[in-house]
Backbone:
RNA sequence: GGGGUCGUAGCUCAGUCGGUUAGAGCGUCGGCCUGUCACGCCGAAGGUCGCGAGUUCGAGUCUCGUCGGCCCCGCCA
């Protein structure tokens, strides 16, 4: 060992990224590369290491004859050590190139190297197989998980989305304006995350569920076009596409009608898909009313990649001798079915499993039909005469080899939702979701209110600032349930990408909506007085939309969950396994905030259990 | 709050009908190896079968509870 100690200085800074190494035959270009030892192959004589950074990997070779001392030190290198290597780019000897590597024609013959940092043995190997590792572990050691090619790709894609969004909207005259993270708690909607105010003992801020009111006020202030890539928070239970904190692309504009938002978003998504994944998206998107979506697909976010839809069979059974269905049809109820192409091959067991599923979803029963060798089969066939049978086939467009599942009920939405869920599950199970398709859709004409039976009042389907359709305003008193709103959702492949509305800009209508929602004048003033005042101060017609950036990134990357496109996501119990948040806090801290917890609040058991994954 | 599913070595998994000392591959550690690229060969270490009760002569295996991950329902304006 020579005495002179080596430090990381200018001399050791990379001159090229690992993935960018290339050369010409006959030349030996001197280079310095920095990175992680992803793999080592020690042949006893020659030592090969694959050195990795975010651009890719390059092979470094240590030769005991050329540099015996350096070779001896290189034997100590292990996975994920951080090193700087000085060497020369060589074309690999005849027959040793690796065509599966971008840099596979070349290698760096090491002249010297500097060990910048060691790494403890890894809890799991870093590579594509890591997808199979317990997500528990991946989240605990997120820094290692993120070092993987795939996670790097996903987060770089996410960055591209953010950049494209800013450029596109900025070029369109939209101004990015930040709105507060410490805001007022609102009673409608999701549960708020609360933040105690030390200087206002007993009072709480809420983290925003969306910057809704602030962006409306920015319109009132005359900014005309606003956008923000913004974190939002909702204290509700998690799903594969739902996290307690998530990122919205939030947009608002003045003096607009629905068409302006539609064409803006269509143009934006068209450009984004081209830019990020090279896909051509056709515009304009399809439009569908809420009730058409419910009737045909049993969902307000239909997946149009699936080539079959719900059919109305009331006319078929109105004339049948099967009493339960005939009566329901006669009383104005709904007899509907979902066809399954190729479903004739389903066994008795398959059919009863599907019926079980339907019952779990709330159906009273499920009647299957199958067409085998041209013959209609099923327990209810005997109740149908010849003409009803052919009406059944023609109205559901089923032919030989297909199946049809029929349910009946008095609630239009309930019947459709059950069939809609079956449609999704059957299509997935039988591989009937068109691959590589991107089916965009605007869902419009949502109801403005829906009945909250538990609370015994009407509540807003979208939010209380959504404008009713002007021709439905007279219905607000007589029949609130039939009032349509000027809200719209953007749906992609059965995912709600985002939603928005034309807002109320008339303070009288806003007060009217509050009263329909059973807010007393006083309560409305207390909660939203500042908005009502603002609305009274000269408000242009305005509206907007918010797109879920995590979902967008998930769909563009093909990830199965938004966790895979977020750097530090939380588990289903809303915990961060890496940092251990949320945690109990010292009593002193609570005292300062004038907060006392009851029961489990301060107990240790709230810390995430780490028996299995504790790094120590 | 509810339903489903999973939990065995650092990782991925196998473990039969409840029966001897719980196995494999990868990784780790040691040895050999000069053109490997998931290097190869030889050897070794490594286990609270998530945790706790119960049934049993005997539990990784059966029962109940509990903790945790994931999927779903409710919830998510």
Residues:
């Amino acid at each position: 060992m020579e005495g002179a100690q080596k430090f990381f200085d200018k001399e050791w800074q990379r001159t090229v990224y690992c993935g960018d190494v290339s050369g010409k035959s006959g030349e030996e270009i001197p280079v310095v590369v920095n990175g992680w030892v992803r793999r080592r192959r020690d042949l006893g004589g020659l030592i090969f290491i694959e050195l990795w950074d975010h651009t890719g990997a390059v092979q470094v070779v240590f030769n005991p004859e050329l540099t015996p001392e350096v070779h001896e030190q290189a034997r100590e290198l292990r996975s994920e050590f951080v090193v700087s290597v000085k060497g020369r780019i060589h074309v690999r000897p005849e027959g040793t190139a690796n065509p599966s590597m971008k840099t596979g024609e070349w290698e760096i013959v090491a002249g010297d190297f500097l060990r910048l940092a060691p790494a403890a043995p890894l809890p799991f190997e870093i590579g594509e197989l890591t997808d199979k590792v317990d997500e528990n572990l991946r989240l605990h050691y997120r820094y290692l998980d993120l070092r993987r090619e795939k996670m790097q790709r996903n987060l770089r894609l996410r960055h591209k989305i953010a950049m494209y969004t800013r450029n596109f909207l900025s070029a369109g005259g939209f101004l990015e304006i930040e709105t507060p993270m410490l805001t007022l708690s609102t009673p409608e909607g999701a549960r708020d995350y609360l933040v105690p105010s030390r200087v206002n003992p007993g009072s709480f801020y809420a983290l925003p569920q969306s910057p809704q009111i602030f962006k409306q006020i920015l319109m009132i202030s005359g900014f005309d076009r606003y956008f923000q890539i913004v974190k939002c928070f909702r204290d509700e239970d998690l799903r594969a596409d739902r996290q307690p904190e998530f990122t919205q692309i939030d947009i608002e504009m003045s003096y607009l009608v629905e068409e302006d938002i539609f064409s803006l978003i269509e143009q934006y998504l068209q450009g984004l898909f081209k830019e990020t994944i090279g896909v051509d998206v056709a515009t304009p998107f399809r439009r569908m009313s809420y009730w058409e979506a419910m009737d045909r697909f049993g969902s307000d976010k239909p997946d149009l990649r699936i080539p079959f839809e719900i059919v109305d069979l009331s006319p078929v059974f109105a004339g049948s001798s099967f009493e339960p269905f005939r009566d329901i049809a006669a009383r104005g109820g709904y007899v509907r079915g979902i066809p399954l192409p190729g479903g004739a091959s389903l066994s008795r067991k398959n059919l009863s499993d599907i019926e079980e599923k339907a019952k779990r979803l709330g159906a009273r029963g499920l009647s299957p039909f199958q067409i085998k060798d041209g013959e209609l089969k099923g327990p209810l066939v005997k109740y149908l005469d010849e003409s009803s049978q052919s009406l059944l086939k023609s109205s559901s467009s089923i032919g030989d080899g297909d199946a049809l599942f029929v349910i009946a009920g008095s609630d239009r939405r309930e019947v459709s939702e059950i069939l809609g869920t079956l449609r999704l599950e059957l299509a997935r199970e039988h591989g009937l979701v068109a691959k590589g398709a991107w089916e965009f859709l605007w869902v419009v004409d949502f109801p403005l209110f829906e009945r909250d039976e538990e609370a015994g009042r009407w509540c807003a389907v979208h939010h209380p600032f959504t404008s009713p359709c002007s021709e439905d305003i007279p219905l607000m008193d007589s029949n609130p349930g039939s009032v349509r709103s000027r809200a719209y959702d953007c749906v992609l492949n059965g995912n709600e990408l985002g939603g928005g509305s034309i807002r109320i800009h008339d303070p009288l209508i806003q007060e009217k909506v509050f009263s329909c929602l059973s807010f007393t004048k006083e309560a409305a003033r207390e909660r939203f007085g500042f908005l009502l005042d603002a609305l009274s101060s000269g408000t242009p017609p305005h509206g907007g939309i918010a797109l879920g950036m995590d979902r967008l990134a998930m769909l563009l990357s093909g990830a199965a969950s938004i966790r895979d496109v977020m750097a530090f996501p939380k588990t289903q119990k809303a915990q961060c396994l890496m940092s251990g948040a949320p945690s109990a806090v010292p009593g002193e801290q609570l005292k300062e905030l004038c907060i006392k917890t009851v029961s489990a609040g301060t107990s240790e058991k709230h810390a995430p259990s780490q028996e299995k994954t504790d790094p120590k």
Notes: The first strand of chain A starts at residue 29 and ends at 42. The radius of gyration of chain A is 31 Å. The mean pLDDT of chain A is 92. Residues 149-171 of chain A form the longest helix (23 residues).
